[in-house]
Design goal:
The protein has five helices and eleven strands; from the N terminus they run βββββαβαββββαβαα. By secondary structure, it is α+β, with helices and mostly antiparallel strands. The strands form four sheets. It has a five-stranded antiparallel β-sheet with strand order 6-1-8-9-10. Strands 2-3 form a two-stranded antiparallel ribbon. Strands 4-5 form a two-stranded antiparallel sheet. The termini are far apart.
Length: about 200
């Protein structure tokens, strides 16, 4: 009997994080960050070259250490509404298993966030959405591939917009859900036309 031993470097496949267990979800419409949201810069943090001085105004609400910046969220809420459990599941699936290809714009000025809470009422995950630039960010980030860092957003923005309106939130600057869905259709049509070879 011949026994062969193969030696070499065995690389483990990266473990894809999973979405945390959650009990309920609240959708929030938030205002723009402004001077009311100024806060001291952490002197122990790595210096951000875009922040001058000893105060900063955070634009997004996600952070890696605590999922969501609860202090900023509490001062920026315009409207909020609890999602029914099936709708929250749709938000989760639409964000993580999307097959869409929405072109991403440059602004990233999110006005909507879905916060998933644990049974004790603490935030365990959040999905932040900018319907103007077609971008979704998550904390913790569990998506992999093009939707995370590519030129296209893969989340189903239409389903996310519908969930936001079901929670009683506006989709400003869009007058209605239908107006937003028409915009998505125009963007999709434009992307298809640009992908076709020119004759």
């Amino acid at each position: 009997m011949l026994t062969v031993t193969i030696t070499g470097i065995c690389e483990e496949a990266p473990i894809q994080p999973t979405f945390p267990k959650w009990a309920f979800c609240v959708a929030y419409q938030i205002r723009d960050a402004d001077a009311r949201d100024k806060r001291p810069v952490n002197p122990n943090a790595v210096k951000d070259p875009f922040i001058e001085g000893d105060t900063s105004i955070p634009s997004g609400l996600l952070n890696e250490s605590n999922v969501v910046d609860v202090a900023a969220l509490s001062t920026r809420i315009v409207k909020s509404g609890a999602l029914r459990h099936p709708t929250a599941e749709i938000v989760l699936r639409s964000s993580t298993r999307g097959t869409q290809r929405h072109p991403i714009m440059d602004c990233y000025d999110p006005h909507h966030i879905f916060v998933f809470y644990g049974y004790e009422g603490n935030p365990v995950a959040a999905i932040e959405v900018c319907f103007s630039c077609n971008r979704v960010k998550m904390s913790p980030e569990i998506r992999v591939g093009e939707g995370v860092s590519g030129p296209f957003e893969t989340a189903d923005l239409g389903k996310l917009a519908k969930a936001a309106t079901e929670a009683g939130l506006d989709l400003k600057p869009y007058a209605s859900l239908d107006a937003y869905l028409q915009r998505l259709d125009k963007l999709k049509e434009r992307a298809i036309n640009e992908a076709q070879p020119q004759r």
